[in-house]
Amino acid sequence: MGLLSKKDSKLILDPLADNNPITIQVLGICSALAITAELKASIVMSISVLFVLGLGNVVISLMRNIIPSKIRIIVQLVVVATLVIIVDLVLKAFSYELSKTLSVFVGLIITNCIIMGRFEAFALGNGPWRSFLDGVGNAAGYGIILVMVGFFRELLGSGTLLGFKVLGDPIEKTGLYALGYENNGFMLLSPMALIVVGIIIWVQRTKNKALVEDH
Amino acid sequence: MSLKSKLHILKRKYRSSKMAPAFNALHTFLYLPNETTHGGTHIKAADDLKRTMNTVIMAMVPCLIFGMFNAGYQHNVAFGEIQAVTAGLFSPEFWTLDNFLIGFWKILPLVIVSYGVGLGIEFLFAIIKKHEVEEGYLVTGMLVPLIVPVDIPLWMLAVAVAFGVVIGKEVFGGTGMNILNPALTIRAFLFFAYPTWMSGDKVWVEGAVKRTEEIAAGANLDAISGETILGSLAQGKEAGYSVMDMFFGFIPGSVGETSTLLILLGGLFLVFAKIGSWRIMLSSVLGAIVMGLIFNQVVDSGWITESSKFYGLMSTTWWHHLLIGGFAFGTVFMATDPVTASQTNKGKWIYGFLVGFISIMIRVFNPAYPEGVMLAILLMNVFAPTIDHYVVQGNVKKRKKRLKVKSI
């Protein structure tokens, strides 16, 4: 990458795979399980987190020298809360249906461990540009998993992708459904999201043995 | 050259290749291995894993054969071909070749798919992970066709078996390491993934689903209803079958679960062969009786009236609960699974009692999951290690106390 130095590009690329917030650090699982029944919701959630984490990291990084360390958690919370409220209001204004689906989980971005984790671990000790890259990288790593889980859950659970009936119509019995195929209702339940995340972790660790902890 | 020596030669030929576990498994499954170990002390025992598994399968064979007769019988009764049984266990209407053949051709594919997919995955994992194939799937493969409705589409069964074997067993490290009973994991997957094929009043009778589709397409035919007794009771209807029908098994239900009599015989066989734990079976029945009596008492004392949605199942006479649904089958063949049940004797009593107790509780309180025994066993599977832990700790504490008293 010519645009970024090697050290900077590592900030973005590391969280995508080898230091993924969900599959390696096992953070932010709660929302990954709850809202991934549809691909669209996963994408919107990823973008929301990208916005909050990218911007939040910059804000915290800019203020890092003036935040008294005793009350830094409160300051961080105020920053996240402000950004989350912006996201929530934008969603309500422009995509009311979707904000209904995501319901409380947009608000719960505030408590998403990834965000507070990055503020604490990175933004408080690094400059705004590097913090921004770190925020974007981690949010993208989170988003990739969300989109993957959402893709499989929507495809196998409802037979659609982004609302398009890619496998045919289950009521009219066209496409795959004419052959007797049926949607897997289990995919729409949260336990299956956990299993899908588990399978992703399994595949990732099989490919990269360095990630396997030894006991 | 005999098959045995041919296999032996094949085994030697592939000994150092990747496929070795597959040949070894086939050889040891069919014959006693003709290698002997050298040096050291050995214990020779007949009850190896293969023998244990085969004994359980033998205990299930009567249920399987009865299931074939019953599948055909339910089909013929529902379609008005024959009259319902009247003469008890040896009713001539039931034991006909026609009944058997209908069931045979319907259930044989279930058995083949279950074993084919399950063993295929076991072999695959053994080859990838370079260990020997274990006999763990032999019993699961026979249990699975017995606990599904006869009309389940084969591809669904294949998907569920693949899921159950991989997620239920292989990810934990294979046979002997699993937390949940694989057969029940497979059934639970089917139940939550394809609920329309696992409940309702159509899937239990061969051909009823097809008939429904024909009627929907405009054919002038009578609809077929083959509701299970649990289903009828949950809706507040009469059971519609006599107690003797329930005991002998002339009722709709999953393939092998209907005949309490044959399950009882299978259970006795397992107990006398010292393979099934009588403690778990007995305490599970006790648990179910206690819960059934509590519910009957609640109804008798007038806390629940007929308007309640729980009334139908709650007012069922307590010992009927032991005869209907999959309770007997689950208790005898699945709660006793030595891998997933509690290991300590005291733990087995607690584990079994709770299985029975919770089965009936789920049955009554959640009519959407009429097969409470499946969820109860899976739940208790998760708690079995905890129960064992506290039983062992309790024993340690007791002995320490004794030590203290003595030393004073």
UniProtKB/TrEMBL annotation, chain A:
Q: Where in or outside the cell?
A: Cell membrane; Endomembrane system
- Please verify whether the record's keywords include Transmembrane: yes
Q: Which residues cross the membrane?
A: 43-62, 74-95, 101-119, 131-152, 185-203
The alphabetized UniProt keywords are: Cell inner membrane, Cell membrane, Ion transport, Membrane, NAD, Sodium, Sodium transport, Translocase, Transmembrane, Transmembrane helix, Transport, Ubiquinone
Biological process GO annotation list? sodium ion transport
Q: Which reaction does it catalyse?
A: a ubiquinone + n Na(+)(in) + NADH + H(+) = a ubiquinol + n Na(+)(out) + NAD(+)
- For this protein, what is the EC number? 7.2.1.1
Q: Kind of enzyme, top EC level?
A: translocase
One GO location term (cellular component): plasma membrane
Q: What is its main location?
A: membrane
Coiled coil region boundaries? none
- InterPro entries for this protein: NqrD, NqrDE/RnfAE
Question: Which Pfam families does the entry link to?
Answer: Rnf-Nqr
Membrane topology, from the record: Multi-pass membrane protein
MF terms from GO for this chain are: oxidoreductase activity, acting on NAD(P)H, quinone or similar compound as acceptor
Reply yes or no: does the keyword Membrane apply: yes
Q: How does it assemble?
A: Composed of six subunits; NqrA, NqrB, NqrC, NqrD, NqrE and NqrF.
User: What family does the Swiss-Prot or TrEMBL record give for this protein?
Assistant: Belongs to the NqrDE/RnfAE family.
Question: What does the UniProt record say this protein does?
Answer: NQR complex catalyzes the reduction of ubiquinone-1 to ubiquinol by two successive reactions, coupled with the transport of Na(+) ions from the cytoplasm to the periplasm. NqrA to NqrE are probably involved in the second step, the conversion of ubisemiquinone to ubiquinol.
What's the name of the protein?
Answer: Na(+)-translocating NADH-quinone reductase subunit D
UniProtKB/TrEMBL annotation, chain B:
Which keywords, in A-to-Z order, does the entry hold?
Cell inner membrane, Cell membrane, Flavoprotein, FMN, Ion transport, Membrane, NAD, Phosphoprotein, Sodium, Sodium transport, Translocase, Transmembrane, Transmembrane helix, Transport, Ubiquinone
What subcellular compartments does it reside in? Cell membrane
Carrying FMN phosphoryl threonine, the residues are T228
Enzyme Commission designation: 7.2.1.1
Membrane-crossing segments per the record: 52-71, 107-128, 143-167, 179-197, 247-273, 280-298, 318-336, 348-366, 372-392
Cofactor names:
FMN
Tell me the InterPro entries matching this sequence.
Answer: NqrB (IPR010966), NqrB/RnfD (IPR004338)
- Biological processes, Gene Ontology terms: respiratory electron transport chain; sodium ion transport; transmembrane transport
Q: Which GO terms describe its molecular function?
A: FMN binding; oxidoreductase activity, acting on NAD(P)H, quinone or similar compound as acceptor
Q: Name one Pfam family in it.
A: NQR2_RnfD_RnfE
- Name the membrane topology term: Multi-pass membrane protein
Q: Which GO terms describe its cellular component?
A: plasma membrane
Catalytic activity, per the record? a ubiquinone + n Na(+)(in) + NADH + H(+) = a ubiquinol + n Na(+)(out) + NAD(+)
Which PANTHER family does this one have? ELECTRON TRANSPORT COMPLEX PROTEIN RNFD (PTHR30578), NA(+)-TRANSLOCATING NADH-QUINONE REDUCTASE SUBUNIT B (PTHR30578:SF1)
The UniProt entry's sequence similarity note says:
Belongs to the NqrB/RnfD family.
HAMAP family reported in the protein's UniProt record: NqrB
Could you describe the subunit structure of this protein?
Composed of six subunits; NqrA, NqrB, NqrC, NqrD, NqrE and NqrF.
Protein purpose = NQR complex catalyzes the reduction of ubiquinone-1 to ubiquinol by two successive reactions, coupled with the transport of Na(+) ions from the cytoplasm to the periplasm. NqrA to NqrE are probably involved in the second step, the conversion of ubisemiquinone to ubiquinol.
Kindly provide the name given to this protein in its UniProt entry: Na(+)-translocating NADH-quinone reductase subunit B
